[in-house]
Amino acid sequence: MRIFATLLLTFACSFYSVAQIKKTNIVIYSNGTNDISGILKANRYSFSTYKDQLQAVKAAKNGGGVLFVANDYPRLRLSFDKGVEDLIARKNLKVFIEYPAASAGLAVENDTMQTHLERAVAATSRIKNLDSLDIFGIHNAFVVKSAAKNPLIIVAKVAGFDKAQYGLSDVKHDPILFQQGNTLVATTRLSNVLTSRVGPVDHVKPVWEHILHHLDASVNWQLDTWPLQVKPMHEKSEVLSKQDYQQAITKGVDWFYKGKFLIHPSWEDQFTKYIGLEGPPVDLNLSSGDGSSGLMEGHMSRILIDGSQMYRYWIRADCNAETAYALSILAGASEKHKKVATNLLDYLFKTSNLRAGNKNDSKSASYGLIGWSTNGTYPNVYYGDDNARVLLGAIGASALLNKNNWDRYIAEGIIANFRTTGKNGFRSGKLFDAAINEKGLKAIQENPLINPHPHYESWMWACYLWLYDKTGYKPFLEKAKQAITITMNAYPNWKWTNGIQQERARMILPLAWLIRVEDTPQHRQWLDLIVSKLLENMAASGAIREELGSSDKGSYGATKTNADYGKHEAPLIARNGDPVADMLYTTNFAFFALNEAAAATGNPKYKNAVSKIADFLVRIQVNSAAQPALDGAWFRAFDYNRWDYWASNADAGWGAWNTLTGWTQSWIVSTLALQQRNQNLWDISKKSAIKDEANKAVELMLEQE
């Protein structure tokens, strides 16, 4: 009886398994790997594959469909073997061919182009579930030129979030997908849709469902499963465990090493070759440095056809200090992290040119300031917000490593910025070494500038408040309060950079730390005003939606024309309401600052917001076995409705798929760890012994001016 039952169950399972395979008449010609076979398997559609074109066409049923994959893309364009075209015609086959040669008897030319900012745009509504002007990214694709009429999809440089918002009348464009008789022609390779990370998924699925329907109209094509190679770590509604948070922190720290951002002497020549530029991905088989040669900035938002990304070959002061802080988070469990964090700060302050020259001459007006980057003239450019993140990163690393090695540099850095501040507490976006020394400190300090622009100004005020707490030196408090008061009185008429949300996010930290040193109803009211406004745009998932401010106040507003797309720094959204969170400018800094605000006030609303953002960030961390250099990272952009990495990629330097060792990765990793421990930066640095070094710097840099 048991044997009979077992046989019956086995038969039933086998029958169920076979029944789930959806039969099609699709034949694929492919002499290598391709993503479409994987997609068909994942969705349980049957198909057959042949490595020989003639065999594939012979195997197809009369009136059936054959899909020709361009496996030698982009090196060779696909052409039909002898006898194939005649047999296709005799059997009345439906065909899809991609990246075809001009000899294939199709409306294509000899020339090809490579895309950079161009995206694919639906030129018609004839594709089911894809509207005219819908956009998807094809990422540095090689495209065959064609004069085909009435294409289904074209390639063009257009502005817009997920739709060509200004239309196509003023742009040059070429066909990407068109029909010629019984043949659908793709002028680039579309069968690498997963490898090349073509997206967003909801705009790409309909294209492939249309292609497959063309090949076999008897099948109800529904590609419900889309096996992405680069995807979020967790689904939107997935319940997270304590282990998921710990994994996010560990993978976030490991990413610095896996991505080979730490420069190693054995390949420093390659770094020097591309310094200050975008360059090729670093070979992941190379050794990772120990921090003594510095750290690269991160990935460009430029996806290559193999799914990897270009690197930004820059050594920036802020990224090095912020990464030292992030690595210090796990220093207690790893001597390697401790060593690398220490080396990064020593490199920054002692051996690089970031604190060299006038910056290390006590008689210079720019003494103590920290250069932006090591290459070209950038060591002599001083962004106040970047200096602030250097100092905050060094403060955090010093506390976690329990070292005072860099107290002098931290104190001098804060005071150097303080004494190059105007009389109202504002410095402007950046200062230049030559101008500082030409004007002199007195003229700079008498500057009546008022600049309510928190992105550039506000975190340095937080540094003044932190050093006031350690020294009791009243001018630090007074200058910070003066600037904060002016800025809050100006709200909501603030200047903004890439969006007004990032300005709110950046203002939270100085307001929280002002409460730490002077807790008044007014200061709490200011903080709650900004936090509440920021959280109006928080989605149920914990994502903070981006928002554009008044058009006359923005530095980098929405792209105004198709021609302007990709020429300037830019927001991730085209208009307010686009469901995008920004992990470079807003969510990352809001997460850190809200954790500080929750600790400063005990306000449960702030603590709940921190928890929701933490959940969101753990879920959207990059998960990719195919791209180890991305695994564990956070991209700048995330579309929280699609639950996909998508946004306008208009920013000329730091677009949707950009990663940053500093701004993004470091603050997310470090704050996740602190939040899980119920800690915050103010409290872990409370016992800093910086007072003696700060008093020396005050005497040298302020009282002896």
Low-confidence stretches: 1-19
Indicate the mean pLDDT.
95
Task: Note the total helix count.
Answer: 22
Q: Based on DSSP secondary structure assignment, what is the total number of beta strands?
A: 20
**What portion of the residues fall into strands of 2 or more residues?**
5-15%
What is the CATH architecture assignment of the largest domain?
Alpha/alpha barrel
Biggest sheet: strands side by side, in what order?
Answer: 2-1-3-4-11-10-9-6-7
- In whole angstroms, the N-to-C terminal distance is 99 Å
Overall domain count:
2
How is the biggest beta sheet arranged? 9 strands, mixed
Shape: elongated
3D architecture notes:
Helix 8 (317-328) runs parallel beside helix 10. With 705 residues, the chain is an alpha+beta fold. Helix 2 links the parallel strand 1 and strand 2 (48-50). The radius of gyration is 28 Å and the shape is elongated. Strands 2-1-3-4-11-10-9-6-7 form a nine-stranded mixed beta sheet, with helices on both faces. A three-stranded antiparallel beta sheet has the order 13-15-14, with no helix packed on it. The protein has 22 helices and 20 strands.
Which helices and strands, and how do they pair?
Blueprint lengths: L1 H19 L5 E4 L5 H8 L5 E3 L2 H7 L5 E4 L15 H7 L3 E5 L13 E3 L4 E4 L12 E2 L5 E3 L8 E4 L17 E7 L2 E4 L14 H15 L15 E2 L9 H17 L9 H7 L3 E2 L18 E6 L5 E4 L4 H12 L6 H17 L29 E3 H18 L5 H13 L10 E3 H7 L1 H5 L8 H18 L2 H17 L9 H18 L3 H15 L44 E3 L4 H15 L2 H17 L1 E2 L13 E3 L21 H16 L4 H4 L6 H13 L2
Helix pairs in contact: 6-20, 8-9, 8-10, 8-20, 10-11, 10-14, 11-14, 11-22, 14-15, 14-16, 15-16, 16-17, 16-18, 18-19, 18-20
